[in-house]
């Protein structure tokens, strides 16, 4: 095709190819979700509809885009890990990041009703994205551990905070003052001695966040078959299919990685 005299402007585009052999992590975070959660009456400290919608949107990202092996989410954020050897979009950071962010955002709106029913979505939400490269398995695991540790720290704080408000009758300012300078042990103690809440027994979804991976699962379906001159018979067919599965478990220790050895590459 003949080139126009304007063609040279393409040379202003900068190369943003991700370094080879590194895991490519895209992390999304909801814009101004403190306000979004209040305006949409999220349950505090944890709204399970919102967490479900976040995971549903993340699953759609994994199903629609190539080469994502694991995703981890908590609160209004989700991280997606592309395998080391991916050549998707020639490893161009901006392409990978914007496809993840837009697939996620459009899914969040598309599936809203499945989770929030008639509760209306008041305005179009958006998510920021960033790309980070991790060269070693240790670095990648430490990244995921960092996000899960963050989930734990925030959830312990938020559980203590909202218990003081909802059950202890404190104002939000008073609850904030009460918790300022406290350690994890102090928060556990407040919950236990004043409200008879054992933090260990709180929901794993809230304490550990959500990890999505690909797993082989057996699916059994029944089929009606009918050959000429025979009566219709029903047969069962079992097929193995790769599916995105959701886990709310510890991913900091060794066990998860021993149980799922395919996620990390050598
Ligand atoms: P920014 O645009 O800088 O990310 P933000 O308001 O989104 O600002 P975050 O640090 O990302 O700030 O925090 C997200 C906030 O959204 C949480 O502090 C919490 O108030 C709220 N939130 C997100 N998910 C949930 C949920 N499932 N249940 C209740 N509240 C939630
Ligand atoms: P890629 O994912 O690489 O961008 P693509 O199929 O989106 O692939 P584009 O070069 O972006 O390829 O071209 C977009 C195509 O979408 C057009 O060639 C045209 O066929 C179709 N298209 C987009 N907008 C319209 C429209 N308003 N009416 C009719 N067709 C359209
Ligand atoms: Mg933020
Ligand atoms: Mg946010
Ligand atoms: Mg956040
Ligand atoms: Mg196009």
Structure description:
The structure is a single chain. With 266 residues, the protein is of the alpha+beta class. It has one domain: tRNA(His) guanylyltransferase (Thg1) (Alpha-Beta Plaits, 2-Layer Sandwich), CATH 3.30.70.3000. The chain has helices at residues 33-39, 48-64, 93-110, 112-116, 137-166, 172-179, 184-195, 204-208, 255-259; strands at residues 23-30, 68-74, 77-82, 127-134, 210-225, 233-247. It has a 6-stranded antiparallel sheet, with helices on both faces. The longest helix has 30 residues, at 137-166. It is globular and about 70 Å long. The two termini are 44 Å apart. Bound molecules: adenosine-5'-triphosphate (ATP) (2 copies) and magnesium ion (MG) (4 copies).
Compile the SSE list and pairings:
Layout: E1 23-30, H1 33-39, H2 48-64, E2 68-74, E3 77-82, H3 93-110, H4 112-116, E4 127-134, H5 137-166, H6 172-179, H7 184-195, H8 204-208, E5 210-225, E6 233-247, H9 255-259
One magnesium ion is lined by residues 29-30, 33, 76.
Short description:
By secondary structure, this protein is an alpha+beta fold. It is built from nine helices and six strands; from the N terminus they run E-H-H-E-E-H-H-E-H-H-H-H-E-E-H. It has a single domain (14-208), classed as Alpha-Beta Plaits (2-Layer Sandwich), CATH 3.30.70.
Looking across the biggest beta sheet, what order are the strands in?
4-1-3-2-5-6
The CATH topology is given as: Alpha-Beta Plaits
Task: List the bound ligands.
Answer: adenosine-5'-triphosphate, magnesium ion
Structural class: alpha+beta
- Termini, distance in Å? 44 Å
How large, in whole angstroms, is the Cα Rg? 23 Å
Name of the top-level CATH class: Alpha Beta
Q: Any idea what the CATH architecture is?
A: 2-Layer Sandwich
Q: Total number of β-strand segments? A: 6
